Each structure stands twice: as structure tokens, then as C-alpha cells.
Amino acid sequence: MDMLYITGLHKRFGDKEVLNGLNLTVPEHSIFGFIGKNGAGKTTTMKAVLGLLKTDAGEIVVNGEKVVYGQTSTNRYIGYLPDVPEFYSFMTAPEYLRFCGEVTGMKKSENENRCRELLELVGLGDETHRIKGFSRGMKQRLGIAQALLNHPKLLILDEPTSALDPVGRKEILDILMAVREQTTVLFSTHILSDIERICTDVAFLNNGVVGVQGKLSEIKTKYRSKEYLVETEREADLLILQKTFPNMQQTGRNQLIFHESHYTIFDMLCFVTEKHISIVKIERTEPTLESLFMEVARK
Ligand SMILES: Nc1ncnc2c1ncn2[C@@H]1O[C@H](COP(=O)(O)OP(=O)(O)O)[C@@H](O)[C@H]1O
Ligand SMILES: [Mg+2]
User: Fold this and answer.
1) pLDDT at 299
2) Which residues contact 138 (CB under 8 A, 6 or more apart)?
3) Based on the domain organization, do 282 and 231 belong to the same domain?
4) Residues 189 and 209 in one domain
5) At what angle do helices 93-103 and 108-121 cross, to 10 degrees?
6) Which of 164, 185, 216 is the last residue before a domain boundary?
7) d(C-alpha 230, C-alpha 256), whole Å
8) Which residue CA neighbors atom 25 of ligand 1 most closely?
9) 103 C-alpha vs ligand 2 centroid, how far in Å?
């Protein structure tokens, strides 16, 4: 089942059309990366999903239930971490989390257990300091614990890693991987390496619409490169190859690239076998997310 389904979403601020018929489908138990440059409309989309923003047209369905602006009934399925989370900084992490549980009406013993479990999960189990002394990464981790309190079916995080250093980012990404079995994770980012690291599915937001979306592996296959890379063990072999296959281009030390419109992989394999050329690797070059993103952004 799809946990989130958006069709034809439109939103304008004044005369600026930010969302221009956005369609998005987030499958259950995916880790979904919502990619777009600054100002693309990621936060706007998330706020619309939360029913916090009045949209101009379109439909949003969460866990099979339609989202209605101003009515937050679908939010019982959602845990949300905003881009800049705010806390009561005079409290400690356990105090704050317990307070949040109480506010939502959780039973005392259940609240205790849930808070302990979540603080453990986000690596704040032994943390006794007040939140005001927390690093950004610690605050983000506490925010994730808070968002998970009520066992959401959909966890929405707005750029959870953008302001963090590589260590802090890895900690967040590890937590998101760990919670995948319990929930569906949708997070926005412009950091492509984070997507590459953990996402099962992605969507590229550009010019108010989702340009490309789907399983990361399928997208990579679809936009599969038509180029092959050959790396030889000896430099001398490079020259032999280039002599026979003049349309190969050198791209690095002992590395050549050829396009399948010029030669087939079978030509190449036959030749290197026949001539006893020692090959370190021969592979189809993988499209990078960056090159995909650039392609989508050009449209
Ligand atoms: N309340 C608002 N009033 C006017 N313009 C807004 C408002 N919120 C967002 N915008 C504009 O909408 C565009 C998309 O913003 P946003 O959704 O925050 O982008 P992102 O989260 O992808 O960086 C930006 O150009 C931003 O300036
Ligand atoms: Mg934003």
C-alpha cells in the first residue's frame, strides 16, 4: 500500500507558483528521499501534507485517508520533525520527551517505557544535560525521538541532516535506517550522498513538479549509462587498446571509457582475451545521482 499519495497539488504565494501539479507516491516502509534545491517547495509540500497550509488544488491522501486543511485527523498517522525544531531548552532530554508524551495523553507507565526506548534508539539514553547545551545533531536526534513517540506510520523529516557535520549526518541516517521496519520515512534534502546512502525511493522536485520518481535502483537502471569503463593493469596495454579502438577516451591513469555506439562489450572482451591484456575492471559506468539531478533540473 502507499502511505502517502499526492495528485495535482498546486500552491501559489502571491503571483509565485511554487507547486504546479505535483504528484508523489510514497510506498509503505520505504525510505523516501525528497530532493530539490533550496526554494524548490519541499517544506511547502510537507506542510500541505500536515494540513498546515491551504493549497489551491490537488489531493493528498495519508494511509488511505484524505488530508483536509486545518483538520488534523490524518496527523495521528504522522510524526514530524520540522527543519528548525524548537524545544524547552531548560529541560533535559528525558524530561522533555516525557512531557511530550503526557501532553498527548499517554499513560504514565507506557510513556516511561516509550521514552526510555526512544532515547536509547537515538543515542541519548545516558544524556543528563539540559537541552540548551545540546549540539545541533543532538537536538535533531531528540526531535526524531519526539516524532516517533506515538508510533507514527509515516515519519516526515524536513532536511534533518542539512545543518550537520558528516558524523552528525551519519548518526541521523543510521537512525532512519533502524526505524524503517516500524514506519515509513519521508525526508527532504539537497544532499545527494545522504540519499545514495539510505534511500530506497526518491523523487526530484523541480519547477513545482516531480520530474522523476521511483525506486532508486530502477531509476538508475532506466537512466543507465551507455558507457563502459576499462581499467588495465599495465600502462602499455592502454596504448594497445587505443590503437585498436581509437574512439576510446582516457579518463584516468590506466582507465579508458568507450560508448556502446562505438564498440560492444563483446568486441572488447574478445580482444583483451586474445591479446592477454590484464584487466583490473571492466564495467558499465553508473549514473550518479548528481548527473540525474542535473538532467532533471535542465528540463
Ligand atoms: N508563507 C510564504 N509566503 C510567501 N512565499 C513563501 C512562503 N513559504 C514559502 N514561500 C516561497 O515558496 C518557495 C518554496 O519554499 P519552500 O517550500 O520553503 O522551499 P524548500 O523547502 O524546498 O527550500 C520559496 O520561493 C519561498 O520563498
Ligand atoms: Mg525547506
Assistant:
1) 66
2) 93, 124, 127
3) yes
4) yes
5) 140
6) 216
7) 5
8) 39
9) 27
Give me ligand 2 centre to Cα 46, in Å: 9
User: 244-274 pLDDT, tens per residue?
Assistant: 999 999 988 899 999 999 999 999 999 999 9
- By alpha-carbon position, which residue is closest to atom 5 of ligand 1? 13
The verdict on 207 and 266 lying in the same domain is no
Pocket of ligand 1 (CB under 6 A): 13, 18, 36, 38-44
Ligand nearest to the CA of residue 41, numbered in listed order: 1
Spatial separation of the C-alpha atoms in residues 134 and 96, rounded to whole Å: 13
Is 221 inside any structural domain?
no
Q: How many CB atoms lie within 10 A of CB 215?
A: 15
List, for residues 122-153, the tens digit of each pLDDT value: 999 999 999 999 999 999 999 999 999 999 99
DSSP letter, residue 10: E
Q: Which of the ligands is closest to the CA of residue 207? A: 1
> Which residues lie across from 255 on neighbouring strands?
231, 252
- The pTM of the full predicted model, rounded to 2 decimals, is 0.86
CA of 11 to the centre of ligand 2 (A): 15
Identify which ligand lies nearest to the alpha carbon of 158: 2
Residue 148 sits in the same domain as residue 280: no
Tens digit of each residue's pLDDT (9 = 90 or more) over 33-82 = 999 989 999 999 999 999 999 999 999 999 999 999 998 899 999 999 99
